[in-house]
Amino acid sequence: MAAEVVKETPAETEAKPKIEKQTNCLACNKIIKKLKRYYRDGKFYCSKKCWRVFIDKSKAEKTEENK
Ligand SMILES: [Zn+2]
Q1: What's the predicted TM-score (pTM) here?
Q2: In this model, does residue 56 exceed pLDDT 70?
Q3: Spatial separation of the C-alpha atoms in residues 40 and 1, rounded to whole Å
Q4: Where would you tag: which of 16, 30, 59, 67 has the fewest CB atoms within 10 A of its CB?
């Protein structure tokens, strides 16, 4: 049995209740320009390519969880 202690600080992550407008791409974290933004599933990306990257990432995470 591993005696690992995972310290979590939920208070810190939930300290800011105000909703900020998403201005950065979820895949590359660049600031999205209004003219070039790519909207998908309620989120913004700077391009379709970045959307694909983000989808692939989240898929990979899900498959890891299923193991
Ligand atoms: Zn991007």
Answers
A1: 0.59
A2: yes
A3: 43
A4: 67
Residue pair 26/43 in contact (Cβ under 8 Å)? The answer is: yes
Structural tokens at position 53 = 């990257």
The answer to whether 27 touches 54, Cβ cutoff 8 Å, is yes
Report whether pLDDT(25) > 90.
Answer: yes
Cα(63) to centroid(ligand 1), Å: 23
CB 37 within 8 A of CB 46: yes
Mean pLDDT for the stretch of residues 9-27: 71
Distance from Cα 32 to the centre of ligand 1, integer Å: 7
Neighbours of 18 (CB within 10 A): 4
